[in-house]
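Please decode residue identities from the backbone states below.
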């Protein structure tokens, strides 16, 4: 079963001006597509050829000889999750269950913003900032390169922010903080976060 590049959940210009159509043309149309193509080449003819993407990520993570497979499979999964973590007209304070849990577990929205930006800004080099649900509560974490909370069976990813340079360089150059502000103020998809919490039984 070959994987296909998933469509964006909005038009290529749907996140403008905060993330430009040019950025999505490269980020989705080139980077994400390359991970999909590499993944298909790596699983072709193997015992993982018919596995789900999540299964491939977890199997490859457990086998150090499959680092290349893990990197490509995890990046396919991470990017798909990232696209859904944003929406046109998003951002600002959360609502619903995620708002309740941010207040309860993270000290309120302002503290969440500080910690989430700290995770994204504190990730040296390429990686991801995550909001996850684990052990009955929300927490914030970061992962380098292609690493993902998906490999932790106890954790459910709720939101992610890509802090690889190709996510923001065309629009923000080397100012990761400005990109993170735009993500939180104008793009974050709290409906997606609430759906992920509901799916986790929160």
């Amino acid at each position: 079963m070959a994987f296909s590049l998933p469509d964006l959940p909005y038009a290529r210009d749907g996140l403008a001006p905060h993330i430009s159509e040019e950025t999505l043309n490269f980020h989705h149309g080139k980077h994400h597509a390359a991970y999909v193509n590499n993944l298909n080449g790596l699983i072709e003819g193997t015992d993982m050829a018919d596995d789900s993407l999540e299964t491939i990520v977890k199997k490859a993570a457990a086998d150090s000889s499959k680092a290349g497979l893990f990197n490509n499979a995890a990046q396919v999964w991470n990017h798909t999750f990232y696209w859904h973590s944003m929406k046109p007209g998003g951002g600002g304070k959360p609502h619903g269950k995620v708002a309740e849990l941010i207040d309860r577990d993270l000290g309120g929205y302002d503290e969440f913003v500080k910690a989430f930006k700290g995770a994204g800004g504190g990730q040296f080099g390429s990686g991801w900032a995550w909001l996850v649900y684990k052990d009955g509560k929300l927490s914030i974490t970061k992962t380098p390169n292609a690493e993902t909370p998906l490999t932790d069976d106890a954790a459910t990813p709720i939101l992610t922010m890509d802090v690889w340079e190709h996510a923001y360089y065309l629009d923000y150059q080397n100012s990761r903080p400005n990109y993170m502000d735009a993500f939180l103020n104008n793009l974050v998809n709290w409906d997606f976060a609430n759906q992920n919490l509901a799916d986790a039984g929160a």
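Observation: Residues 21-84 form a domain with the Helix Hairpins fold (CATH 1.10.287.990).
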